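User: quick one, sequence for these tokens?
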């Protein structure tokens, strides 16, 4: 049997790991804080529209069309998350 699939998986895994390593500092210092601020700013003016999501464990929410954040999060017993 050919080992092509296994080799491909190893190549793809090595690439994912290298990309994660290369982006780690940028994500921690720039991307995540900026994204968090964007979502907080959008929340202040009010999220709008968006796609409904149900995770299959009783939790559901909407994704904002503006910032992409989650809003109107509801738990299986009606709790807000």
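Assistant:
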């Amino acid at each position: 049997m050919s080992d092509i699939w296994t080799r491909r998986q190893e190549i793809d895994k090595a690439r994912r790991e290298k990309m994660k390593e290369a982006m780690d500092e940028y994500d921690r210092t720039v991307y995540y804080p900026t994204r968090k601020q964007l979502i907080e700013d959008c929340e202040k003016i009010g999220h709008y529209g968006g796609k409904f999501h149900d995770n299959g464990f009783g939790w559901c929410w909407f994704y904002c069309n503006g910032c992409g954040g989650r809003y109107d999060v509801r738990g299986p017993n009606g709790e807000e998350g």
